[in-house]
Amino acid sequence: MSHARREPAGNLLLRARVVLPLSRPAIENGAVLVRGGRIKELGRWSDLSRQSAEVVDLGKVVLLPGLVNAHCHLDYTHMAGMFTRPKLFSDWLKLITTTKSEWELADYRASWVSGADMLARTGTTSVADIEAVPELLPRIWRKTPLRVFSFLEMIGLTGRRPPQVILDEALQKVRSLPRSRGVGLSPHASYSTLPELLRLSAEAAQRYDLRMAVHVAESETELEMFARGRGDMFRWLERSGRDMADCGHRSPVQHLEKCGVLSERLLAIHANYLARRDAALLGERRVNVVHCARSHSFFGHEPFPLRRLARAGANICLGTDSLATTMRPRRQTVELDMFEEMRCLSARERGLSPRSILLMATRHGARALGMRGKIGEIAVGAFADLIAVPYDGKQVYESVLEHHGDVSASMIGGKWVVKPC
Ligand SMILES: [Zn+2]
Fold it and tell me: 200 and 231 share a domain?
């Protein structure tokens, strides 16, 4: 890699053995011209090399768009390895609820920053993060170069705090935040909220043009609770004082539909357990479904209904979820890392092409966040959010998926995050 000539400031011409725009075929011996934080041109090196710009030859790498992590809980990063796979999903919920209550603001802060650092090093440039601790915002945004889309978590099991009060508090926070990052609403899950909170949140999201993220149909016991009004989650929540009148009628996905939540603004997290009509419904409503492959493995769920959802037209994205639900092998460390998620999915879904998986980790996530054409692809006018990984000279998409660890280079909005060396 060499830094050749230095030309007018702000113009940067990146050269790579392969440029992989994802919005069009790969370009061998390619180049990307960056100006003012955006992509101005892309093409073959021979066509762009006469541009007046500072040239950075990245060498034998694939240059691709930065990855879009469509679901994360940065503030749980330091819970890595704290939990083993629970027998019952509701036991897991009890565990994390207890842990959360024992943590202090400083714990969450350190955890958030460390998670953001992991993502930035390993090729994520945009992340949809669920914020359980809104007090950290907006100051914590300055601790990371990542494009963070913060979804404010709202939980309300009982009516003790009325849904309107919970929502108003979140909306007040939204209004207080600078517009520099994306903000959305996250009524936590179908089971941990009352229908009224879901309904009011969907109306507010529509009114204020906000995205929503909701955990849905993650576990079998949640399906059982909503569809049949029984099971361990049903019993536990009933004992906890939740009004269970919304149970025993329909699936969790149909419950969201009834509350007016299903739309293209929704990021439906997990959607592992679907009733017969659910995939079609998610497709019709153009919902974004976020699959978190390692978290799925951690719980040992039934196979993810990827093909049913894709056929129905749902926009399937990838996310890391948190390290609290990522298996940590003995004496090893685990990191938030979208390449690990892609490989985990690839190992499970043998028929799924590496290209399809990469699209889930880039363009699909961009669409989910309302950022189509701006992130998740190398296209003229898009933000210069780019990453480089070593190229082994073989199949390009396969080569990318085999990358382990930190990326060779990364930039967000034209600024280096991982400087090439
Ligand atoms: Zn989650």
Answer: yes
Q: Measured in angstroms, how far is the CA atom of residue 72 from the centroid of ligand 1?
A: 6
Q: What distance in angstroms lies between residue 381's CA and the mean position of ligand 1's atoms?
A: 32
Range of the structural domain that residue 412 is part of: 2-65+378-418
**How far, in Å, is the centroid of ligand 1 from the Cα of 182?**
18
The pLDDT tens digits for 166-211 are: 999 999 999 999 988 899 999 999 999 999 999 999 999 999 999 9
Domain-embedded: residue 175: no
* Total length of the chain: 421
Q: Identify the segments of the chain with pLDDT beneath 50.
A: 1-9
The answer to whether 330 and 301 are in contact (CB under 8 A) is no
CA angle 129-120-100, nearest 5°? 40
- pLDDT at position 260 is 98
For residue 301, report the distance from its CA to the centre of ligand 1, in Å.
15
pLDDT in tens, 46-73: 999 888 899 999 999 999 999 999 999 9
Is 294 among the domain residues?
A: yes
Report angle CA 340, 346, 350 to the nearest 5 degrees: 165
On whether residue 170 sits in a domain, the answer given is: no
Contact status, residue 184 vs residue 217, Cβ threshold 8 Å = no
Domains held by the chain: number:
2
**Do the domain assignments include residue 176?**
no
CA 296 to ligand 1 center in whole angstroms: 11
The pLDDT mean for the chain works out to 94
Tell me the percentage of the chain whose pLDDT exceeds 70: 98
Contact of 341 with 294, CB cutoff 8 Å: yes
- 388: CATH: 2.30.40.10
Ligand 1 centre to CA of 279 (Å) is: 20
| pLDDT value of residue 333 | 83
Residue with tokens 């941990």: 192
Ligand 1 centroid to residue 328 C-alpha, Å: 18
On whether both 278 and 138 belong to a single domain, the answer is: yes
380: CA distance to ligand 1 center in Å? Answer: 33
Distance 215 CA to ligand 1 centre (A): 6
Cβ–Cβ under 8 Å, residues 63 and 32 = yes
Give the distance (Å) from ligand 1 centre to CA of residue 295: 9
Is residue 55 located within the same domain as residue 124? no
| 412 in the same domain as 356 | no
> Domain check: are 364 and 403 in the same one?
no
| Chain centroid, CA 36 distance in Å | 26
